[in-house]
Specification:
Two copies of one chain form a homodimer.
Chain A: H1 5-19, H2 26-32, H3 47-58, H4 68-80, H5 85-94, H6 101-109, H7 112-138, H8 147-159
Helix pairs in contact in A: 1-2, 1-3, 3-5, 4-5, 4-7, 4-8, 5-7, 6-7, 7-8
Chain A binds a DNA duplex (19 and 19 nucleotides) through loops.
InterPro entries (chains A, B): Homeodomain-like_sf, HTH_TetR, Tet_transcr_reg_TetR-rel_C_sf
Domain HTH tetR-type (chains A, B): 2-62
Protein name (chains A, B): Transcriptional regulator, TetR family
Chain lengths: 160, 160
DNA sequence: ACCTGAACACCGTTCAAGT
DNA sequence: ACCTGAACACCGTTCAAGT
């Protein structure tokens, strides 16, 4: 029945997807795992580290390949697949500007400056998209039907 | 002695600049103003709204003018001038994608797509810069001396 | 190694009541 | 109109102790 570090990350991602970042507390993750809050600190030094591990897992399946535009779309899809995924990944990535796997792979494919610019754009646009869609779902905002196309056009602007 | 809504925003910005977003709680803002936490809710419906008002104030002095690159630099400077300013402004702006003053003015100067791309890039790069510098100050990270130049090069990439 | 139980120092927000 | 006082339902984290 003993949990591993990966179990903790999985539990945290389930809580994130079900309740959103706002309610993804250490206490909720613990109760998702059927364990006391303090037990989590055996696997992870603090919440920030747990969030970084969650971010890694969210983008784990993203292959950069040989087409920057395709890579950008893949990254975007991976983040949109989890509730508040863009927020989690963007925040964690800002902390390691210049030494994330994806930024490095993109830099080899193009240039360091383009890689960073592209990545920041993808994060920003996807974060905004996800927030906007959530607000629309609650009915606070009218849904903008053009966000996917807006993303593609901005991407073209950068890669042109 | 009675506070106004503007006093609350000013107090909140003082707390933000002194302690950072993490510690900018309603309770601290209240104590900065010498008032009970509950008193804030007379001026502001919730913390999110207060943060949006703070964001407006941070970028209030930014003039778009007739040069997109200059506008981008001005926006960046305004956000860097306040501790965690980029975080506050970026989060608030994601909520109103497509109807912020600066995005609209930039859109008239260029095109809607370019305005949005530019804005998201400025937010992303400035957020990362600010985080990175804070981490460097605490000694967690080696300072990257090139962040200002990196910003300018990315800007060129987009505006070219 | 993995976890419990209890504690510490906090949160945002509501609401009746005061002036 | 502006604020107090008290309460409610939470936080992240630490630490001695159990198995």
């Amino acid at each position: 029945m003993a949990n591993t570090r990966d179990d903790v990350v999985s539990g945290a991602l389930r809580v994130l997807d079900a309740f959103g970042l706002e309610f993804c507390s250490m206490r909720r993750v613990a109760s998702e795992l059927g364990v006391q809050p303090s037990a989590l600190y055996h696997h992870v030094p603090d919440k920030q580290t747990l969030l970084a591990l969650m971010a890694d897992r969210i983008v784990a399946g993203v292959e950069v390949g040989d087409d920057p535009a395709k890579a950008a779309h893949a990254l975007r899809e991976a983040m949109l697949a989890v509730r508040d995924g863009a927020d989690v990944v963007a925040t964690a990535s800002a902390f390691r500007l210049g030494d994330s796997r994806i930024e490095n792979e993109l830099a080899e494919l193009t240039t360091p400056d383009l890689a960073r610019t592209l990545l920041l754009y993808v994060f920003g646009h996807t974060q905004a998209t996800q927030m906007h869609r959530q607000a629309a779902q609650i009915g606070i905002l009218a849904e903008d039907p053009d966000l996917d196309a807006s993303f593609a056009r901005g991407l073209d602007l950068i890669l042109r």
